[in-house]
Write a structure and sequence with these properties.
The protein is of the alpha/beta class. The protein is 44% helix and 18% strand.
Amino acid sequence: MRLAQKTALITGGNSGIGLATAKMFAAEGARVAITGRDRRKLDEAAALIGPGTVAIQADVTDIEALERGISEAAKELGRFDIVFANAGIGGPTPLGQTTLAQFDQIIRTNLTAVFFTVQAALPHLSDHGSVILNGSVHAVLGLPHSAGYAATKAGVRAMTRNFATDLAPRGIRVNQVTPGATRTPIWDNRAPTAAEYAALEATYARAIPFGRFGEADELAQAVLFLASDESRYVTGSEIVVDGGTTGAPGGAPVYRG
């Protein structure tokens, strides 16, 4: 098992990429703590992840609650070998139509909370451990109506490299997984029905060289590599899992006719 005897903290571990990663970590031998806002979803996720899962109810935008939750998880697990700062939200921020409250919510969830997740976990993080941040291709794509979300993910991209510098003396590696369009609940508000979701994916897939959305498990595989000892000499790096969207855009169906 690739994570035998290791412990992991995953924020937003009750759905999407976080849940897929938590299940994969547990299958590879890790003891896992997850955070989330909804008690019912947390309990359902914990049952899927397996026995011994620590489910902590905490809103990452409430920094005091987040810090208490991480301390509680550390009491249950001892120390963390792996921290996956995964929790995040989407949402449009069109120029000229966005309120301060909308913008602030995205910043607090996707950027501020990432910083304070790592800071709160740090006293409980083992030397030579692994910190993984969840980024997005939005940091470089320049898509319309996405300035707030893109800004947070560009900030995460910068923090990955800065954290790697800060934690190098302890041998702690800090890396980032960067998803492209992925099948997760983050799309639910935009496409609440199956037909709307299929139409949304068909539209986006024209700009993806592999012609489809990614699966949460495909992202989790990249996170697993960064969490395992197989990446013990990798830090300050980014694994892009986007079906070629940013690396080989010319291969997308929209350019192939």
